[in-house]
Design goal:
Elements lengths: L1 E5 L8 E5 L9 E10 L2 H8 L15 E8 L2 H4 L12 E4 L2 E2 L5 H4 L10 E2 L11 E5 L3 E3 L6 H5 L2 H14 L7 E4 L5 H12 L3 E6 L2 H10 L3 E4 L5 H8 L5 E6 L6 H6 L1 E9 L12 H6 L3 E4 L5 H12 L7 E6 L3 H9 L6 E5 L5
Parallel strand pairs: 10-11, 10-13, 11-12, 13-14, 14-15, 16-17
Antiparallel strand pairs: 1-2, 3-4, 3-8, 3-17, 4-5, 5-9, 6-7
Bound molecules: zinc ion (ZN).
The site of zinc ion has 10 residues, from α3.
C-alpha cells in the first residue's frame, strides 16, 4: 500500500512517501481503507522524537481517521459497537486505544489505562491507504460530512469535550476563556462551551483568527498581542474573572490564565505547547477555592457523544486545508507555520 512514513526522527523532510506493507488486523481489530487523515501537533512531536512516544521504524503517523471498513475478522465482530457496521460502511475512528481489562478501563476511565496509546503515536497510524484499528473504536461517519471533514474532528473534539464537560464540569451560564482560538482544540472548545450554554471569550494574537472564532460562536474576543489578556478579561467580566480557562499553551500564558480566574474558577489543561514548567502562587489558588484539572484525550463513550452531536449538526468540523498524502511533508510545514484556522487534512483515497 502507499503510505507516508518515517525512517528516523527529524524535520518535515523526514516524511517519505512510498510503499509499506498492508497491516494485518489483530483479533479485535478491523482493517480500514483510509479516505482522509487529519494532522495534529502530536504528529509533529512524534516526528521530532520525544521520550513520551518512542516508535519503531518505519513508523506511520496519524490518529484522526475516516474511511471505509475493508475487512472485519470474525474475532472482531463482537467488539463492534454498532451491529449494522459492515464491510464498506463509512466510519470515523476514536483515536485512543486501551486494554479494556484493567481496573481503570472497567471503571470507564480507559484514557487512564496503563496501556493507553494513541493511534499513530503508539501504533501505526492513518497516513496510509490502510490502517488496522480496534473494532470498538469505530462509529458511523455522519452522512452530511465529507471524509475530509469527518477526519478533522475526532482528536480535538474528544479532547475539548473531556476538558470542558467531564473535567471542568461546565455549568449553564458560566464564562469560559478559550486560549489560542485558532487551534483545532480551541475551535472545538468554543463550540462545545456554547452548545452547553456558556459565555465564551476567545483569545488569539491574530485578528483574523478572532474573526473566525466569532463566526463559531465566541461572544467576546481579546487580541492577545495588544497586552496582557487577564486585564481585558477583568474588564469584560466586570472585574469578576472567568469560571473556566481552557489551557493548552503552558508557560507563555499560564500566569495570565491564573489571573483571569474568578473565585471557584477552574483551569483545565490538555497540553503545553510552549513548555512543561510553570510557576504558581498557591496562596491565590487556596484563598479563592480555585482548581487545576489535567485532562487527557477522552473515552470511547465520550467519542460517541461527539459523533452524535456532529450527526445532529450541533457541532461542526473546522477544516483549514487539504493536502494529498504524497505531500504530507508540506502539510507538516503548513501546520508548523501556524497560519491555519482549524484542521490540516491529508486526502488519502483516491490517491492523486
Ligand atoms: Zn486498561
Amino acid at each position: 500500500m502507499k503510505a507516508a512514513f518515517l525512517l528516523e526522527h527529524g524535520g518535515p523532510e523526514k516524511i517519505q512517501f512510498g510503499e509499506q506493507p498492508k497491516p494485518v488486523p489483530k483479533a479485535d481489530e478491523v482493517l480500514i481503507q483510509v479516505k482522509a487523515c487529519a494532522l495534529n501537533h502530536l504528529d509533529i512531536w512524534v516526528r521530532q522524537g520525544i521520550p513520551a512516544y518512542p516508535v519503531p521504524f518505519p513508523h506511520i503517523l496519524g490518529c484522526d481517521i475516516s474511511g471505509e471498513i475493508a475487512t472485519i475478522p470474525k474475532t472482531a465482530r463482537e467488539s463492534l459497537f454498532q451491529e449494522e457496521l459492515t464491510v464498506g460502511s463509512e466510519v470515523v475512528v476514536s483515536p485512543g486505544v486501551a486494554c479494556h481489562n484493567c481496573s481503570d478501563c472497567i471503571e470507564g476511565y480507559e484514557n487512564q489505562c496503563p496501556e493507553f496509546k494513541i493511534i499513530g503515536a503508539g501504533t501505526p497510524g492513518g497516513y496510509a491507504e490502510f490502517v488496522a484499528v480496534p473494532a470498538r473504536n469505530l462509529a458511523p461517519k455522519p452522512r452530511h460530512l465529507s471524509f475530509e471533514e469527518a477526519a478533522s474532528f475526532p482528536l480535538t473534539f474528544l479532547t475539548a469535550w473531556h476538558m470542558i464537560l467531564t473535567r471542568a464540569q461546565l455549568k449553564f451560564g458560566e464564562t469560559v476563556l478559550i486560549l489560542g482560538a485558532g487551534s483545532g482544540v480551541s475551535t472545538a472548545g468554543i463550540q462545545i462551551a456554547k452548545m452547553f450554554g456558556a459565555k465564551v471569550i476567545a483569545v488569539s494574537s491574530s485578528q483574523d483568527k478572532l474573526d473566525h472564532a466569532k463566526l463559531l460562536g465566541a461572544d467576546l474576543c481579546i487580541n492577545g498581542s495588544k497586552g496582557p489578556f487577564h486585564k481585558e478579561v477583568r474588564k469584560l467580566t466586570d472585574g469578576r474573572g472567568v469560571d473556566i480557562v481552557f489551557e493548552h499553551v503552558g508557560p507563555a500564558t499560564w500566569e495570565e490564565s491564573v489571573r483571569s480566574l474568578a473565585s471557584r474558577g477552574r483551569i483545565v489543561t490538555c497540553g503545553a505547547t510552549t513548555g512543561p514548567i510553570v510557576s504558581l502562587d498557591l496562596r491565590v489558588i487556596f484563598t479563592k477555592d480555585q482548581s487545576i484539572y489535567g485532562s487527557r484525550l477522552g473515552t470511547i463513550s465520550e467519542f460517541r457523544k461527539v459523533v452524535e452531536a456532529m450527526r445532529l449538526q450541533k457541532l461542526k468540523p473546522v477544516l483549514s486545508k487539504v493536502f494529498p498524502l504524497s505531500e504530507a511533508a508540506h502539510a507538516h510545514k503548513f501546520l508548523e507555520s501556524q497560519s491555519q484556522f482549524g484542521k490540516v487534512v491529508l486526502k488519502i483515497s483516491p490517491l492523486n
